[in-house]
Amino acid sequence: MFENLQGRFAKVLNNLRGQGRLTEDNIQDTLREVRMALLEADVALPVVREFIETVRTQALGEEVARSLTPGQVLIKVVHDELVRVMGQANEALDLAAQPPAVVLMAGLQGSGKTTSVAKLARWLAERQNKKALLVSCDIYRPAAIEQLRTLAAEVGAEFFPSTKDQDPVAIARAALDHAKRHYKDVLIVDTAGRLHIDAAMMDEIRALHAALDPIETLFVVDSMTGQDAANTAKAFGDALPLTGVILTKTDGDARGGAALSIRHITGKPIKFIGVGEKTTALEPFYPERLASRILDMGDVVSLVEEVQRKVDHEEAARLVQKLKKGGFDLADFRDQIKQMATMGGMAGLMDKLPGMGQIPDQVKAQVNDKEMKRLVAMIDSMTPKERAFPDIIKGARKRRIAAGSGTQVQDLNRLLKQFAQMQKVMKKMKGGGMAKMMRGLKGRLPGMGGMGGMGGLPPGFPR
Ligand code: GDP
Ligand code: MG
């Protein structure tokens, strides 16, 4: 999978070598090429559009550290967006139910459902030490039940027999009952598919879903159908509460558009990919690994990560120095908020500051990005003089700033009050250093409340 994208990306991104910094101008051509590459890979258009816009915004906001080239930074941005589009992290199969955990398979004919049932049973036995009972509710396709019986024997899973004159829902109920009485960990239910989405098939799978109440309802889809895979997944997702997707036949798909589109179009995670015809050919879906495979530039990505981590540390250290010296005005405060946003939010920065490790995670999580944006907007609407001497901000100025930033005078009052308190704390801190401040603050943390609450420090300020 992704061979085509790999070739295109390598060419395109290497073109940016030697450029001084990332600008709208010099990323323009590269982004156009990236866009073409994604379209050629049969990624769905809305996904391509959002991908390009996100990369553009991210890239322009990105500082190019001295030891890096813009091309390297752009590669990292593209890499991160690839990971994000595919769903960030692997989502595991959820089997946390009173046994048996029921897994229902849905999908078009030929998508790989029956094969995937066997692969999954094998994977569960080998990786999770779970015994699965397999049953086929496909009474339409000749030999479908027989196919599953053979596969079950091959993977050493118990097979619950059914016949084509039975009713699918009755088969499912009987299998569930058997699985319960024999203490099976998992019941995997294979179903019939049609060549196209049709009402009768949807009704049947819905009836099966209602009878079984599965903890996992997996949509099985052929990777080679590209962006159509995402659209079919959406149609099924609208009819059934899907919990995930198995993307099959990725071994034969050089383009990979489905892998990049499904999450975005359906909101459902790809949990596994089929990578061959054999019953061992099933792998959990790891966005990070696949993104690295697409770009085939793992060394660049880790280099950029390392340098950026270092720069973050230096920035944090500089900030601590500045805090210690005092003389910290609203403009500094704004820079600090913005910097935090680019560093993965408040929580990210807090971890880098000395002494911050002791702050409980839920306190860090209180910091909210929307509030950060509002604060920045308010400070942006001030004149330089107002930022340096907030005391001069009175009636008319307040109204002007609030209007200019789309906020209320009360919001501004709160910001000013909080900033004044922050300066007070910083003056105290001058003598004792950061550690002392942290100790002082720690006792008060619970009282600080949520964002924008009175009496607390403003969000964006390291607590
Ligand atoms: P169903 O109609 O949805 O039950 O589909 P099947 O499980 O019968 O699979 C249809 C065909 O696709 C079979 O020939 C399988 O061997 C093949 N197949 C399923 N998964 C994969 C896969 O991941 N890779 C490859 N190469 N073939 C697959
Ligand atoms: Mg089948």
What characterizes the major β-sheet?
A: 8 strands, mixed
CATH fold topology of the largest domain: Rossmann fold
Mind telling me the CATH superfamily name of the largest domain?
Answer: P-loop containing nucleotide triphosphate hydrolases
Number of domain units: 3
Q: What letter string, H or E per element, gives the SSE order?
A: HHHHEHEHEHEHEHEHEEHHHHHHHHH
Output the radius of gyration. 28 Å
Mean pLDDT over all positions = 81
- The side-by-side strand order for the widest beta sheet comes to 3-2-4-1-5-6-7-8
How would you explain this protein's 3D organization?
- There is one protein chain.
- With 463 residues, this protein is of the alpha/beta class.
- It folds into three domains: 3-86, Four Helix Bundle (Hemerythrin (Met), subunit A) (Up-down Bundle), CATH 1.20.120; 101-302, Rossmann fold (3-Layer(aba) Sandwich); 321-451, Orthogonal Bundle (434 Repressor (Amino-terminal Domain)), CATH 1.10.260.30.
- The protein has helices at residues 3-14, 24-40, 45-61, 70-86, 113-128, 144-155, 168-181, 199-212, 226-239, 257-266, 287-295, 298-325, 330-342, 345-352, 361-364, 369-380, 384-388, 395-405, 409-442, and strands spanning 101-106, 132-136, 158-160, 186-190, 216-222, 244-248, 270-274, 282-284.
- The chain has an eight-stranded mixed β-sheet with strand order 3-2-4-1-5-6-7-8, with helices on both faces.
- The longest helix has 34 residues, at 409-442.
- The protein is elongated and about 85 Å long.
- It starts with a helix and ends in a 21-residue tail after the last helix.
- Residues 353-359, 362-366 and 437-463 have low confidence and may be disordered.
- The protein binds guanosine-5'-diphosphate (GDP) and magnesium ion (MG).
- Magnesium ion is lined by residues 113-114, 138, 144, 190.
